[in-house]
């Protein structure tokens, strides 16, 4: 019998939330096969099984938050089978969910309909002595429910995991205490719109697990004293190089050539000259980092995530472009892994594709710096020539550096941003992509 524990989700993260179980009790699972999804600060990430065997019991239901290293599941391994002297009957905790072959898996998705409030509002409808598995009893305790609150729909009035989760969902949406809009009308994402019940002037929009993580991270981040430095970058040579290369590059590599890897490369090179920005802040002081691991913010319907490109300074522009395209694609497909997060030392935020010209970014603590790349817009600028100054139309990009003022001052921030600016404005036909 092997115990699965909640993995460490990041340097400053002490707990994790179970998002979705990908296997059910009784299922065979291979070593390193995805077992469940956990909620990081900003995204669901798949957790591979550390053992091969049969999932015996799920100890933590979907939506529950537990500390790192807490036991979340039990797997019967091959060693367990070899040690057994005779076949053991299937444990009750496995039999209940597995036997319900005609019902949806208990932990794969939230119920799509809310039970009739009239059927769940009265405690007397439930049987306090109803039969249930130990796993269901544990689920009741975790949610502070009594058996008599849950009408059992299993054989002989047995309370199933689905019954408990349905009541939890009804309580969450408010339909347990009073009539409320069906769960199907609730917004699936922040961008799906808000449905107001007839006659209602306001409605509570529950936070998703991702939004809860973002809220907690932003609250922690704003405890750091932020300062900002802003500069304009003449992107003439950068835009010209990309325009010249992008057609051939797409034909050869099968993906587009973004401007983001150029900015990440510029930041990685600049951080070598400003190592106090490639660091984490701790209460004991500044923890400088040797690897340059740059997080790249990726916007999704549900929120913002920041997967990490490791050893960014060792990658070519092509290598960075492919790595960024890979994590961005997997993020939007919900296929990120835990090792895509954690260990970041600096962040690049591409807000410009949204059309922004000046954003004041929030530092991704415990990092001490973040830089934005804003929209490239054509502007009239003064350009020096041998014959004197002239006004010309140039593509210009604002960049804003946010810094933790405990770790660095404005002068250091200006030096870092000036080096990023110099690298980007120095791009030309001779700049190597590979």
Helix percentage range: 25-40%
Helix count from the secondary structure assignment: 10
User: Reading side by side through the largest sheet, how are the strands ordered?
Assistant: 9-18-17-16-12-15
Main sheet, how many strands, which sense, barrel? 6 strands, mixed
Task: Report the CATH C-level class of the largest domain.
Answer: Alpha Beta
Mean pLDDT: 81
Which parts are unreliable, with pLDDT below 50 for 5 consecutive residues or more?
88-125, 176-191
- CATH-scheme architecture of the largest domain: 2-Layer Sandwich
Beta percentage is: 15-25%
Overall 3D shape = elongated
How many independent structural domains?
Answer: 2
Structural commentary:
This protein is α+β, with helices and mostly antiparallel strands. It folds into 2 domains: 2-185, RNA polymerase II/Efflux pump adaptor protein, barrel-sandwich hybrid domain (OB fold (Dihydrolipoamide Acetyltransferase, E2P)); 222-425, Chloramphenicol Acetyltransferase (2-Layer Sandwich). It is 27% helix and 24% strand. The chain contains 10 helices and 18 strands. It has helices at 78-83, 92-99, 117-120, 134-142, 161-173, 209-221, 236-253, 260-273, 317-332, 410-425; strands spanning 2-5, 15-21, 28-29, 34-39, 44-48, 53-58, 65-67, 71-77, 226-234, 279-282, 285-288, 294-296, 298-299, 304-305, 308-309, 346-349, 369-385, 388-404. The strands form 5 sheets. A 6-stranded mixed beta sheet has the order 9-18-17-16-12-15. A hairpin with a 4-residue loop joins strand 13 and strand 14. Helix 8 (260-273) crosses helix 9 and helix 8 (260-273) packs across helix 10 (410-425). It starts with a strand and ends in a 9-residue tail after the last helix. 37% of the residues are buried.
């Amino acid at each position: 019998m092997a115990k699965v524990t909640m993995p460490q989700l990041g340097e400053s993260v002490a707990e994790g939330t179970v998002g979705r179980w990908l296997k059910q009790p009784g299922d065979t699972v291979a070593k390193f096969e995805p077992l469940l999804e956990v909620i990081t600060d900003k995204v669901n990430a798949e957790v591979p099984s550390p053992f091969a065997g049969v999932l015996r019991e799920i100890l933590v239901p979907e939506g529950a938050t537990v500390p790192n290293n807490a036991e979340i599941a039990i797997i019967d391994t091959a060693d367990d089978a070899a040690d057994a002297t005779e076949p053991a009957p299937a444990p009750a905790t496995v039999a209940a969910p597995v036997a319900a072959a005609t019902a949806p898996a208990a932990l794969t998705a939230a119920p799509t309909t809310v039970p009739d409030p009239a059927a769940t509002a009265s405690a007397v409808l439930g049987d306090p002595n109803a039969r249930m598995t130990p796993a269901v009893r544990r689920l009741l305790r975790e949610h502070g429910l009594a058996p008599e609150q849950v009408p059992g729909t299993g054989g002989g009035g047995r309370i199933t995991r689905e019954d408990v989760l349905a009541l939890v969902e009804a309580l969450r949406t408010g339909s347990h205490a009073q009539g409320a809009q069906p769960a199907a009308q609730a917004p699936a994402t922040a961008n799906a719109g808000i449905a107001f019940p007839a006659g209602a002037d306001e409605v509570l929009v529950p936070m998703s697990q991702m939004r809860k993580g973002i809220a907690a991270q932003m609250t922690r981040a704003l405890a750091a004293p932020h300062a900002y430095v802003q500069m304009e970058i003449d992107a003439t040579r950068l835009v010209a190089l990309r325009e010249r290369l992008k057609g051939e590059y797409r034909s050869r590599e099968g993906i587009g050539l973004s401007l983001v890897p150029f900015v990440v490369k510029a930041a990685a090179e600049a951080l070598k000259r400003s190592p106090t920005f490639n660091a984490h802040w701790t209460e004991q002081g500044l923890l400088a980092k040797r690897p340059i691991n740059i997080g790249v913010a990726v916007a999704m319907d549900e929120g913002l995530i920041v997967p990490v490109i490791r050893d960014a300074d060792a990658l070519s522009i092509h290598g960075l472009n492919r790595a960024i395209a890979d994590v961005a694609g997997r993020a939007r497909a919900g296929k990120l892994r835990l090792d895509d997060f954690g260990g970041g030392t600096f962040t690049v935020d591409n807000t410009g594709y949204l059309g922004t010209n000046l954003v004041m970014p929030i530092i991704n603590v415990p990092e001490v710096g973040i830089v934005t790349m804003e929209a490239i817009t054509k502007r009239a600028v003064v350009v020096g020539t041998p014959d004197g100054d002239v006004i010309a139309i140039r593509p210009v990009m604002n960049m804003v550096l946010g810094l933790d003022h405990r770790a660095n001052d404005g002068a250091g921030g200006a030096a870092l941003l000036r080096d990023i600016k110099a690298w980007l404005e120095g791009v030309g036909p001779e700049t190597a992509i590979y």
